[in-house]
Amino acid sequence: MKLIKLTKKYQTEYLEMLDGWGKLENYKEQAPFPLRFDTNDFDAFIQVIEDLELNPRFDFVPSSTYCLMNEEGKFVAISNLRHYLNDDLKIMGGHIGYGTRADMRQKGYASKILELTLLEAKKIGILEVMITYTSENIGSNKTILNNKGELFEQNDVNGRLTNKYWIKNE
Asked: Fewest CB within a 10 Å sphere: which of 29, 65, 122, 160?
């Protein structure tokens, strides 16, 4: 398995991931937020992803988007690494958001993409990583704990109990 930075080169793999995901659930309601972007014009989509890394809109922080490619060459998960936290991300979102294709869950892919995204965070100097997920998302909470996450606090965010974790990334 390997972590791939999302670029135009991987259009087929990315769209196949979305297609497989979309057959089982609405991926646009899942984390991370790049899943919500329109991919009908893939070049424009990639431009948005690149702009988010180099020159984000006023309401975003710089971020990098990655996909996990499995041994068969399929994208099975996606992550988004925020390079620093603004006030909103300190409440909900944190440094890393990730998601696993619905038909590929419970195979260790979530833990792997988080593990590899943590390495990318370390490369840019993020040594304490915050991750948040709603408390009812048992799978993500287990994934964070598997990657040495420590529950820091629980808050009500828009009527949903949200767990806030810190991971020492040294």
From this structure: 29
Whether the predicted model's global pTM rises above the 0.85 cut: yes
Domain ranges of the chain: 2-168
Measured in whole angstroms, the distance separating CA 104 from the mean position of its chain's CA atoms is: 15
First to last CA, the chain: 23
CA pair distance 57, 129, nearest whole angstrom: 23
Give the pLDDT confidence of 128-154 residue by residue, as tens digits.
999 998 888 888 999 999 999 999 999
Q: How far is CA 157 from the centre of its chain?
A: 19
- pLDDT confidence of residue 31: 62
